[in-house]
Design goal:
about 55% helix, mainly alpha, 11 helices
Amino acid sequence: MRRALPEGVTMADRWPKSAVLAVAALVLVAVTPASAQTRGGEGAVTLPPGDGRDLVAVACSQCHGLNVITAMRNGLSGWRDHVYNMVLRGAQLTPREADTALTYLTANFGPGQQLPPPKPVALPAGPAKELVETRCGLCHDLERLTIVKRSQREWNEVVAAMFERFGAPAPDEARKIAAYLGAQFGSD
């Protein structure tokens, strides 16, 4: 005979969070098509082992492939900005889980960690193409520039945010880069 749960208590409250997370990870791997985990048939993206790996895999892959994470390099403050932004957009992380994810991301995808081999990306010719390749390519896979369409105002904001948060590129270079990105990958 089943006993009723006390008022206000759900089954989820009775399961340890680690058990719920493990079941969610198994279900996610079983039901998520490979195309949702990777982009363009590039093969499975694997995350390095460590405390927080499964948490990051489950929480982040709800909205985008893991290649977004593996193609970035940020310090603690940069990853904190990304994680908090994702939580505001709906990522299901408690404060403790967010701290675990931050520690994992910084240790495995922080400054000095080797980027995965870049895919050959041929950017269109134009003023500041070389700046984009050298400056943006330090921290990002250039493919992410080619698949996103943004208005010129949005490109200005993105490049300005890179300058403000991470010190790259210099202000005159930032204007040239934003103009190039708007001209080549703009939505206007």
